[in-house]
Design a protein that fits this description.
TIM Barrel; globular; 17% strand; binds 1,3-dihydroxyacetonephosphate; alpha/beta; eight-stranded parallel barrel
Length: 244
């Protein structure tokens, strides 16, 4: 099923999140053949979970820590996320890699911890502008996949998001060829790990209601991870219902 995931990043108070949901639920209630999920901040998860009960919208966290419990000030465990009703977790977003020094080893531990706790994971990968300009895109994607997925045997709960760092929040969307090539490359790499698995590959980076149709029509694009354009319920609903 095609997947439409809103990453709200560090936006919205609980009140603002609930306002969004009130407006959003009726806009997408008839969508049955697509998977929809919202990733609010940790603080909103519980209330958003209550508000989404009985709807076709799933709950996603933006981050997780890999330990079960202990002296890790400020962190949240997979079990704690399960406890508030989280279905999905975004792991390895480029903003976490850049601002919080997350590397592939940490990301790998987080993926394993989610797997052990039955949480579905969206693993973000993608090259920076400098890496693309130096023709290192595929090398970087390969490294992120190999290191991120090391030692993982269960791929049922895994989704990959290709988010070229230079396309995130910049208004510069990757072109059709760039997306097509990257998704095909990722698909080929994933076969090494999980030959029989159909792991979904999402695209993320300046997705809007205006470019969604073009993006979704590209081969091996199984959905989108949307930042800025998901903050408004009408805009995000338009993205989900792009075919109508
Ligand atoms: P934008 O849609 O704002 O470019 O953000 C993409 C993103 O980082 C989603 O995780």
């Amino acid at each position: 099923m095609k997947f439409f995931l809103a990453n709200w990043k560090m936006h919205k108070t609980i009140g603002e999140a609930l306002e969004f949901i009130d407006e959003f639920i009726p806009l997408v209630k008839d969508v049955s053949n697509k998977e929809i999920a919202l990733a609010p901040t940790f603080l909103c998860l519980e209330k958003v979970h209550e508000a989404l009960k009985g709807t076709n919208i799933k709950l996603c966290a933006q981050n997780v820590f890999y330990e079960k419990q202990g002296a890790y000030t400020g962190e949240i465990s997979p079990l704690m996320l399960k406890d508030v009703g989280v279905d999905y977790v975004i792991v390895g977003h480029s903003e976490r890699r850049k601002y919080f020094q997350e590397n592939d080893e940490i990301i790998n531990k987080k993926i394993k911890a989610c797997n052990e706790n039955g949480l579905k994971v969206i693993i973000c990968i993608g090259e920076t502008l400098e890496e693309r300009q130096k023709n290192r895109t595929f090398e970087i994607l390969k490294k992120q996949i190999i290191r991120g997925l090391e030692g993982i045997s269960n791929f049922n709960n895994i989704t990959i998001a290709y988010e070229p760092v230079w396309a995130i929040g910049t208004g510069i969307v990757a072109n059709e060829l760039q997306i097509k090539e990257a998704h095909l490359f990722i698909k080929e790499q994933l076969k090494e790990f999980a030959p029989k698995n159909s792991i979904r590959i999402l695209y993320g980076g300046s997705v809007t209601a205006d470019n969604i149709k073009k993006i979704m029509n590209i081969e091996n694009v199984d959905g989108v991870l949307v930042g800025g354009a998901s903050l408004n319920p009408v805009n995000f609903a338009k993205i989900i219902k792009y075919e109508d």
